[in-house]
Design brief:
There is one protein chain. By secondary structure, this protein is of the alpha/beta class. The chain has a domain at about 10-155 and about 190-215 and about 270-285: Rossmann fold, CATH 3.40.50.720. About 40% of the residues lie in helices and about 15% in strands. The protein is built from 14 helices and twelve strands. It has helices at about 20-30, 40-45, 55-60, 70-75, 95-105, 130-140, 160-170, 190-200, 205-210, 220-235, 245-255, 260-265, 280-285, 290-295, and strands at about 10, 35, 60-65, 80-85, 110-115, 150-155, 155, 175, 185-190, 210-215, 220, 240. The strands form three sheets. It has a seven-stranded parallel sheet, with helices on both faces. The longest helix is centred in the N-terminal third of the chain and has 14 residues, at about 95-105. The protein binds NADP nicotinamide-adenine-dinucleotide phosphate (NAP). NADP nicotinamide-adenine-dinucleotide phosphate (NAP) binds near residues 17 and 37.
């Protein structure tokens, strides 16, 4: 980044679990952001109250667009310095990511921060989700004359508690999974992922280069997770271990996942090798949020 150049951060996925906390942090610091959003109203409602009326036009720009047609993105990316990239597509994930990254670098973007997945670090091709993110990472790295590419590889998001467990809590005061009761599972706060991205955007581009950061903020067994939920929601919630057949039925029929990601999500690393990520407090500038804290903060979402 040349000294004095005005930072302007472009967000794809800025209204999501990880993008929204990053956008909020940057707006608080008065760093201008542009959001690529399917629904400008949703984006406006999420963020406009964070910006003083006089600052709205200079700090918050919303471009209506869809990943299925990148024309609005191509027409608006010029003049930005960095790109936050979340892509959601189980069919053509790598194609989407590389298409966006190529256009971004060609328009002068100096740094892409991509929300990838910790499953990229698993052995080659054992994980559907890991493979799609790995192909995407490799494709971006292979773009000639590109700028910096930072891959954040988070473990399971704490926001999954709302996505996957809220229905079974509401219907039967249980959480379900295929993991053993006492296996330590890797969790990361979606707010922390956003904070790491926002912090990287405030550092010089050269500091992070083509870094990869795995993001695990807490290790919690299913039994302990049920205990945290019970404490916060004020009612007994039990962990129920399902068979793979039962879990597969829920993930495909109720959650609506395709076969590959559903098969992946049933698997848990149970070899005791999990750790909170080394150096995560350095990236955050504080200790990571624990699952217990996240549940307490978000308990109203379970009602
Ligand atoms: N959940 C996990 O445990 C986990 C773990 C590791 C990695 N990951 C990875 O994290 C990523 C998901 O991140 P997230 O949870 O922050 O995402 P998210 O909350 O699902 O948000 C998706 C974002 O993308 C936007 N979006 C979706 N479809 C779009 C389209 N067709 N055109 C334009 N924008 C679109 C959404 O905007 P709208 O406001 O328009 O909906 C939203 O801003 C995935 O790549 C996943 O593989 C997830």
């Amino acid at each position: 980044m040349t000294t004095g150049e005005q930072e302007r951060i472009y967000f794809i996925g800025g209204t999501g679990n990880t993008g929204a906390p990053a956008v909020k942090e940057l707006l608080k610091k008065k760093i201008p952001v542009t959001l690529y959003a399917r629904s400008p109203e949703k984006a406006q409602n999420l963020f406009s109250s964070l910006v003083a009326k006089d600052d709205v036009s200079s700090l918050l720009t919303i471009v209506q667009g869809d990943l299925e047609d990148l024309t609005p993105f191509e027409e608006s990316i010029q003049g930005h310095t960095r790109l936050f990239l979340v892509a959601v597509d189980f069919q053509n994930y790598a194609k989407k990511v590389i298409g966006i990254a190529e256009k971004a670098y060609a328009a002068g973007i100096k740094q892409v921060v991509h929300i990838s997945s910790m499953a990229v670090s698993y052995p080659w091709r054992v994980s559907f989700i890991g493979s799609m993110h790995r192909v995407a990472e490799e494709s971006v790295l292979a773009i000639p004359d590109r700028g910096s590419y930072v891959a954040l590889r988070p473990s399971r998001f704490m926001s999954n508690n709302l996505l996957f467990d809220r229905p079974s809590i509401l219907h039967g005061n249980v959480i379900v999974d295929t993991a053993k009761h006492d296996v330590h599972q890797e969790w990361i706060s979606n707010n922390d992922i956003g904070t790491v991205a926002a912090n990287i955007f405030q550092d010089p581009v050269e500091k992070h280069g083509d870094a990869v950061y795995e993001l695990v903020g807490d290790l919690v067994t299913p039994e302990t997770r049920a205990k945290y939920l019970s404490q916060s929601l004020g009612k007994p919630i039990k962990y129920v271990k399902q068979t793979v057949e039962e879990r597969y039925e829920v993930l495909t029929k109720q959650v609506g996942l395709p076969h590959g990601p559903a098969f992946d999500l049933m698997q848990s690393r149970e070899d005791g090798s999990s750790n909170v990520s080394f150096g995560i407090s350095l990236l955050l500038g504080r200790q990571p949020e624990t699952l217990e804290q996240w549940i307490e903060k978000n308990k109203n979402g379970f009602l």
